[in-house]
C-alpha cells in the first residue's frame, strides 16, 4: 500500500504524542538518563520487529523524538502498510541520548499498538479476499486515539466507518426505543432532518424489522444487520436487492469472517479491531553510542 493513501497530518498526531510525553516525563524528566548519560553527545538506535505483521505508526514514532529535540534524525526503512517479518529493521533514529531514550517508550507504545491494529485488520482482509467485502472499524476506539486507530485500520487494508456522530445519521435500537414509534416514522423524521449529502443507516436485528423498513418510502442508505447468522445475512441481502448498502456487524472473528462475507453483504464492521487488539512486538535496539 502506498504511503500517500495513508496520509495523516502531523496536526492529528502531535496532540497525542505531546500528551504521552508529558505523561511520561512528569515534572522531573528522565532522571535515569540525566543521572547516567548527561554527557552522551549522540547515539543511534533501530526499531526492530520481534514478530511478523503489518506496520503502522511511523509518523507518530518520528514525532516522539523530534518534539524532544528538533535535530534528531529519524529514517524510516519501511512504510506504514507494509508487511513486515520478524527481524526486519523498520526505522533508525539518531540524536542525543536524552531525546532517543526519552522518546523510546512513547514511540514503541504507539508503534506497537497501531501495528497490532493493522496486523489484525490485515488478517481479516486476507480472510475475505475475493468476496469484494470491505472490512470496517467502528467508533469503538480508545479515547483520544480515534484518528490514529482508524489510520491503522487503513494501514491494514481496511476501511473506516463513521469518525464522529455528525458524519451520518445512524438509527440504532436505543434511538428507536426512545422515539416510541414505528421504523417508517423514525426514517421519515431522520430524512426530514438530513441534508442532501447526509447518509442514513438503520440498524436491524431481525428480518421482520428489515421488511418493515423496506416497505417505507423513506428508506435508509444503508442497513446495519446486527448479530445475524450467515443464512440470515444471505436472506437480508436478497431482500434488499441492492437498494442500499448492507453491513454485517456482531460476532465477526477471523474464523467467521469468510462465511459472513460470502453472504453477499457489502461491509463487515468489527469494533474489536480498535478496542481489543494485541500490540505487535517491536523493540528499539541501540546500534551505536
UniProtKB/TrEMBL annotation:
Its EC number is 2.4.2.19. Keywords: Glycosyltransferase, Pyridine nucleotide biosynthesis, Transferase. It comes from the Bacteria. The keyword Glycosyltransferase applies. The keyword Aminoacyl-tRNA synthetase does not apply. Belongs to the NadC/ModD family. Involved in the catabolism of quinolinic acid (QA). This is nicotinate-nucleotide diphosphorylase (carboxylating). It comes from Bombella saccharophila. The gene is nadC.
